[in-house]
Amino acid sequence: MQKPVLEMDFEPDCLAAFDVLRGALIDLYASVGADPNSPQDAARRFRVNKTLTWNISKVIGSNDPIASLPSVPGSSALRSLLQAMQKEGASSEVVGRVRDAAKALHGIVEMHVGDRATLELVVDGMGKRREDHLELSRKLAFRGNSGIWGVQARTRLMSVLMAPNADDEDMIDMAIVRGYIGFRRLRTDVRWPIFQLRGWGEEGLMTSMWEALDPEGNRPGGLPLLQRFSTVKACELEEVRTASGRDYMLASGPIGNTGAVDCYVSDCAKAAASKYRTGEDTTGEFGATISAPTERLVFDLLVDERLAFALTPEVRAFGGVFHERSEQAVPEGQLPIPVSQSVVALPGQPPAIATPAAPGYPEIVNFAQERMGWKSERLKGCRLEMSYPPLGSTVLLRFKLPERPTANQKNG
């Protein structure tokens, strides 16, 4: 007898087997008058675990079969439900169809990926249009990296503020706020480069036009610490020069919440860039580098209403295992990381920017506007939020620059 040819593609195999199981479960529930949309009632009636009936409900009501695969019960859990329903009058034929369909699906999963733990990772990487795409994998990586490196942070903040220059509206003034909130050690002996200054000029550092936003932190070539909003002291950060810049090392100290710190840095520049595209420069771009295991990234663009073209950026992310020194913002060899999250408009003008992820953030933005001499009522904004951004990645917001208007357009 000729053996059937196996379809060696994971997704169509699973979809076909999942549909068979889903249909068999629908018939099973119908045969005993049970409502799959009332999993608690089913758990009480059949005296089975409510998690089991919730998972069955997800499978029956699924509109995304691949995402629902991890909800398919294991063999022993499903057996308890089938036994209970058979006692309530389900026929052996209906029960047998469910059992066979589940066995076939489990066999396909084992053939393609080996076990349920790997299945969860495979499913997590599929369905790129889902907002939670790869969130499970990122969470597992966050937990593992926290344990390996002995540090973690609650929030990574990146906030870019822009307005036209007062003397030349074709040029843009900028202030950039970067921060780690709730940065804590998980081992007492850990020293960590909480911030790294890098640049791409001839001397390896960008030192020309940028200066500290806060005059108290304005040390030439030093870390532009926002001391008034930080709980870490400048003396607790050791400067270490490297071949490509400077690292600011947070000293070892108490573990957990008692030793947690908030650290903000900010710098600014007048007439930092043109707001119009040129032949070689057609986009604007800002990146948040994730240099510590972090639970949440909050990345804002806050711009004067005359720069509203920046508020619909493309979201991209890059990372890599092997890093070479490079003079490019995204070094060669870095690999793209799938990102399903998109920016959302912040309501209001000035925008509502308060977030529990960074409790003192509105005060920081107000301080930045005052220092730059900007009017808050002109400000508009958008935000990207990401859970568990990958360690070592750079998350980019990239927007298209407008064409320079012609003389006729300016006069018109």
Layout of SSEs?
Blueprint: H1 10-31, H2 39-46, H3 50-60, H4 65-68, H5 75-87, H6 92-112, H7 116-124, H8 135-149, E1 151-164, E2 171-185, E3 192-198, E4 211-212, E5 237-242, E6 245-250, E7 261-274, E8 283-289, E9 294-304, E10 314-319, E11 335-336, E12 344-345, H9 361-372, E13 379-387, E14 394-400, H10 407-411
Parallel strand pairs: 1-9
Antiparallel strand pairs: 1-2, 2-7, 3-6, 4-7, 5-6, 8-14, 9-13, 10-11, 10-14, 12-13
Brief summary of the model shown:
The chain is of the alpha+beta class and 412 residues long. The chain has helices at 10-31, 39-46, 50-60, 65-68, 75-87, 92-112, 116-124, 135-149, 361-372, 407-411, and strands at residues 151-164, 171-185, 192-198, 211-212, 237-242, 245-250, 261-274, 283-289, 294-304, 314-319, 335-336, 344-345, 379-387, 394-400. Strands 4-7-2-1-9-13-12 form a seven-stranded mixed β-sheet. It has a four-stranded antiparallel β-sheet with strand order 8-14-10-11, with no helix packed on it.
Described by the principal axes of the CA atoms, the overall outline is elongated
Provide the low-confidence segments as ranges. 1-7, 200-207, 322-329
Compute the number of helices: 10
**Residues in β-strands, percent:** 25-35%
Largest sheet: 7 strands, mixed
Tell me the series of helices and strands, N- to C-terminal.
HHHHHHHHEEEEEEEEEEEEHEEH
Kindly provide the radius of gyration, computed on alpha-carbon positions and rounded to a whole number of angstroms. Answer: 27 Å
Please provide a written account of the structure.
Helices cover about 30% and strands about 25% of the residues. It has about 400 residues and is of the alpha+beta class. The strands form 3 sheets. The protein has a 7-stranded mixed beta sheet. The longest helix has 22 residues, at about 10-30. The radius of gyration is 27 Å and the shape is elongated.
